[in-house]
Write a structure and sequence with these properties.
By secondary structure, the protein is of the alpha/beta class. It has 2 domains: 139 residues, Periplasmic binding protein-like II (D-Maltodextrin-Binding Protein, domain 2), CATH 3.40.190.10; 169 residues, 3-Layer(aba) Sandwich (D-Maltodextrin-Binding Protein, domain 2), CATH 3.40.190.10. Helix content is 40%, strand content 16%. The protein contains 16 helices and 13 strands. The strands form 3 sheets. Strands 1, 2, 3, 4, 8, 9, 10, 11 and 13 form a 9-stranded mixed beta sheet that branches. It is globular, with a radius of gyration of 26 Å.
């Protein structure tokens, strides 16, 4: 390589000295010059631990079947991923972030503050959030109110006021439940699973108290603080973003429960089981038909500005949104993804491949 470079340089100098013109670039040289216009030759992806196994599967298949490098996929949690995604443009910032909730207006604003104005939103399917325990113990049948009373920092005192959560066992919450200490492992505040759980399960149970539901109109901040704040007295333990670790701990402690996405339940169905919530078990069918009350949409977000600067982004989008990947009979369903129906899938596929920018205001 050095000898070739030196030979080319000497030839150019000789031609210049003789009044001649520099030799034109060869096809390979032009190709090399074009390659250097990319700021990076590998896609960088961060975000949701729930979407992580799906994104990893697509990335590995993409790397095997195309000319592009396998994307780097990192599990940081939805909030953590969006923070990294929105922190700036350039080679040191991720191109894509996965999320188990929709991007917030405040996050769109943070992106805009850092020069990221065009964001492509891609919905890939659905997931349910489960409150699971070991199959060595009985399966619980819970109402959303039971979930709230078991895990909220403050609960109604029966006299129109609030009190610090006094409940120690599931039986304290509901006499039909076992006399087992409330011990629940779940994700940290940076997790989209945590965001969705407090919104769907905690708030869902909180507003079953009519006077609390009325607070949403009269004092929304107080309502949100009550319904979304998880207790901190040891009954709930933050177990990080690694859902597989929670599954392992449930197998070691049959009295404990864990909060994670349906895909992890599906992959570990031989050892753990999901609680029935409001009469509905967390099954593929119940989540896909929206009858299971604790389910949510899954997304990823793309910096449109990076499409021309990192090779393979549009092709990665095409792979993820292909029928063979995220369609109703796609390979991601085998990993636990609840796919959209054909009509909704086609709509989001068109939007993604057309690189339609997000219109959510900030």
């Amino acid at each position: 390589m050095i000898n070739k470079f030196m030979t080319a340089s000497v030839l150019a100098l000789t031609l210049a000295a003789c009044g001649g013109k520099e030799a034109p670039k060869t096809t390979n040289q032009a190709s090399d010059a074009q390659q250097t216009t990319y700021m990076r030759d590998q896609i960088k992806i961060v975000g949701s631990s729930t979407v992580y196994p799906f994104a990893t599967t697509v990335a590995e298949n993409f790397g095997r079947t195309t000319k592009f490098k396998t994307p780097i996929v990192e599990s940081t949690g939805s909030g953590g991923g969006l923070k990294l995604f929105c922190s700036g443009l350039g080679a040191n910032h991720p191109d894509i972030t996965n999320a188990s909730r929709r991007i917030k207006a405040s996050e769109v604003g943070r992106c805009a503050d850092n020069g990221i104005d065009d964001i492509v939103e891609v919905k890939v399917g659905y997931d349910g959030i489960v409150l699971a325990n070991s199959r060595k113990s009985p399966q619980l049948e819970l109402g959303l109110r039971d979930v709230f009373l078991a895990l909220a920092k403050k609960v109604p005192d029966g006299n129109g006021g609030l009190q610090a959560n006094p409940y120690k066992t599931w039986n304290d919450v509901n006499v039909s439940l076992p006399k087992v200490n409330i011990e629940v492992m779940g994700p940290p505040p940076t997790s989209g699973t945590r965001d969705a759980f407090v919104e769907l399960a905690m708030e869902g149970g909180c507003k079953t108290f009519p006077w609390v539901k009325a607070m949403k109109k009269t004092d929304k901040p107080a309502y949100k603080e009550l319904c979304h704040t998880i207790r901190e007295d040891g009954a709930f333990v933050e177990a990080g973003e690694n859902d597989n670790l929670i599954v392992q701990k449930l197998n070691a402690n049959p009295s404990a429960f864990g909060i994670f996405g349906f895909s992890f339940l599906d992959q570990n169905a031989d050892s753990v089981q999901g609680s029935i919530v409001d009469g509905k078990a967390p099954t593929f069918e119940n989540i896909s038909n929206d009858s299971y009350p604790v389910s949510r949409s899954l997304y990823f977000y793309v910096k449109k500005d990076n499409v021309s600067k990192v090779p393979g982004i549009t092709e990665y989008l095409a792979e993820f949104m292909s029928d063979k990947a995220s369609g109703e009979d796609g390979y991601l369903a085998e990993k636990g993804l609840i796919p959209m129906n054909d009509v909704e899938h086609a709509k989001w596929k068109t939007s993604a491949l057309g690189l339609e920018a997000l219109t959510l205001k900030h």
